[in-house]
Specification:
Largest sheet: 4 strands, mixed
Structural class: alpha+beta
Strand content: 25-35%
Bound molecules: zinc ion
Shape: globular
Number of strands: 4
Radius of gyration: 11 Å
Order of helices and strands: EEHEHE
Oligomer: single chain
Number of helices: 2
Helix content: 25-40%
Length: 76
């Protein structure tokens, strides 16, 4: 199974964090994705490479006025 990359975005925390599809935090986020329209956080993805994922994280970080980061759990 190919690894996918997801970016967790949170506007109130000014956060854009890169995760892999194997991350337990990521799976949790994907379950909540349907509620994105009512929330100040959401997931962007999937990205099919680490480079594209990181680009997505940088773009999202600019949107929320923060800095992109990487998950400490799944180490993308
Ligand atoms: Zn993660």
């Amino acid at each position: 199974m190919a690894k996918e990359y997801w970016v967790y975005v949170n506007t109130s925390m000014k956060k854009a964090q890169l995760h892999t599809s194997k991350c337990s935090a990521c799976k949790f986020g994907r379950v909540l994705k349907s509620d994105a329209a009512f929330s100040n956080d959401w997931w962007e993805g999937p990205f099919d490479s680490r480079e594209k994922g990181w680009e997505g994280a940088q773009k999202a970080a600019t949107q929320v006025g923060g800095a992109p980061s990487k998950c400490m759990m799944c180490r993308p």
